[in-house]
């Protein structure tokens, strides 16, 4: 039997029943990677010898009567996570030989849960792109169309899952880096509530792995089924044992409803700053139709929705100012001069990005205060609705674009070009206030490319969008493997 595209939940049942061993699953996954990954280039740092040894230990543990959540399940890990004994580069050539001495907290949790780590998946330079290519490890392609990107920055993980290279993966998200690759590759991903999942050890190379709570950034699960997302989130979730974990214990509330017909859902398909392409619009409508057909209460408008233009502006200010602080430029004064030359009337996202590169602490505090107003608006909205359905990006996967200055790139939306990074506004809708968002498959474009949407839920009620994803999966199906 070919186990490569089976859900982790099904593999666990087969392992428990003695139908298959972890060694067999691991060998099959490695064989598939060695056969198919030359064209996809998803697994940039294989760790097959240690994977086989871990699989053997998992089988021995099961023979002794042990059972853990992921015991014997082959998984992959985004390159940006520290794994002792493997390089962590973030695609940065000066750090190609950096070797961390201890595992990231999430890698440790995977190992404690019994997972078998096959290796690391590819990322863009510094995790700063919507694609996944770098000088060290090359370009990851989309399994559905190799002329197109699998997305970024967790594109290697999404491509690996779509190709059958392991049952689960873990990634990270600050600008849709979990959700966009899921959308482009036809899989599932979950961006947790900000602060729900400890991120220590998901850190740029050579920096100390300290328990720092980064603004906007989260780490989270990727899978081929919605149920597997919940399985992996339960392994990952919880505070860092070095900080909040000293005193806090996790107790996520259950999903708000059990039946699809009890959900109240707001569906959004238009953004004031960028159009929604026809293929993505069709995907949103397919999900909306499934909700209506299942008896859910669906609305297309609400006065409770926070202003989308201000939300995108705040997100851009917080994202760019934080990124520049972590990856400082060498031309700060030049940027300051260029920002000062902008017209006060220029409120395009290009202008917002430039101003954010030299944002003062005073202006950051003001933006953060406005974010709190938006968070409160979302609380009021989620008193009336249980979830929001909306796009992740305006288009399916786009062709590879390696032009050196991403600020000069353009994204084609039904024949009209827009600034490349403007497509992040939908991802930022959940990221800016720190809300959970689950990416789910929503069919395919006329060209056969996957299309996904995101289900945004109330803060720290991650089980609500995850369960809604499961109900939609039961109704409409989910992942399909590329032919």
Automatic annotation (TrEMBL):
Pfam families: Amidase. Coiled coil: none annotated. Keywords: Hydrolase. It is an enzyme of class 3 (hydrolase). Its EC number is 3.5.1.4. GO terms for molecular function: amidase activity. PROSITE patterns: AMIDASES. This is Amidase. It comes from Amycolatopsis antarctica.
């Amino acid at each position: 039997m070919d186990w490569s595209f089976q859900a982790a939940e099904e593999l666990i049942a087969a392992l428990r029943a003695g139908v298959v061993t972890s060694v067999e699953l691991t060998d099959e996954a490695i064989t598939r990677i060695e056969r198919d990954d030359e064209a996809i280039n998803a697994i940039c740092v294989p760790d097959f010898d240690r994977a086989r040894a871990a699989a053997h230990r998992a089988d021995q543990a099961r023979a002794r009567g042990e059972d853990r959540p992921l015991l014997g399940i082959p998984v992959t890990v985004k390159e940006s996570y520290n794994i002792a004994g493997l390089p962590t580069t973030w695609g940065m050539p000066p750090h190609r030989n950096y070797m961390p001495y201890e595992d990231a907290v999430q890698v440790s949790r995977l190992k404690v849960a019994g997972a078998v780590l096959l290796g690391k998946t590819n990322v863009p330079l510094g995790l700063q792109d919507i694609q996944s290519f770098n000088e060290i490890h090359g370009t990851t392609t989309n399994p559905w169309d190799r002329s197109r990107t699998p997305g970024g920055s967790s594109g290697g993980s999404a491509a690996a899952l779509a190709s059958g290279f392991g049952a689960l993966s873990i990634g990270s998200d600050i600008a849709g880096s979990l959700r966009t690759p899921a959308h482009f590759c036809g899989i599932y991903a979950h961006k947790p509530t900000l602060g729900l999942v400890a991120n220590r050890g998901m850190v740029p190379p050579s920096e100390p792995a300290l328990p720092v709570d980064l603004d906007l950034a989260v780490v989270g699960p990727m899978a081929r089924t919605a149920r597997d997302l919940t399985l992996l989130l339960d392994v990952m979730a919880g505070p860092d044992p070095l900080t909040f974990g000293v005193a806090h214990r996790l107790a996520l509330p259950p999903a708000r409803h059990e039946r699809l017909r009890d959900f109240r859902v707001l569906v959004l398909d238009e953004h004031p700053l960028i159009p929604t392409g026809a293929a993505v619009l069709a995907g949103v409508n397919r999900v909306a139709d499934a909700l209506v057909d299942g008896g859910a209460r669906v609305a297309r408008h609400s006065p409770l929705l926070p202003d989308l233009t201000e939300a995108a502006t705040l997100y851009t200010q917080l994202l760019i100012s934080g990124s520049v602080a972590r990856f400082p430029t060498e031309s700060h004064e030049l940027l300051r001069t260029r920002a000062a030359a902008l017209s006060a009337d220029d409120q395009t996202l290009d202008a917002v990005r430039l101003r954010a590169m030299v944002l003062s602490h005073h202006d950051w505090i003001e933006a953060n205060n406005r974010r709190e107003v938006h968070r409160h608006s979302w609380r009021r909205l989620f008193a009336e609705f249980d979830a929001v359905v909306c796009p992740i990006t305006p288009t399916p996967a786009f062709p590879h674009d390696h032009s050196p200055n991403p600020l000069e790139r353009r994204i084609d939306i039904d024949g009209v070009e827009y600034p490349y990074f403007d497509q992040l506004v939908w991802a930022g809708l959940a990221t800016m206030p720190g809300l959970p968002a689950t990416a789910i498959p929503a069919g395919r474009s006329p060209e056969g490319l996957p299309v996904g949407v995101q289900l945004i839920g109330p803060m720290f009620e991650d089980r609500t969008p995850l369960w809604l994803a499961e109900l939609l999966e039961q109704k409409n199906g989910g992942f399909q493997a590329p032919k």
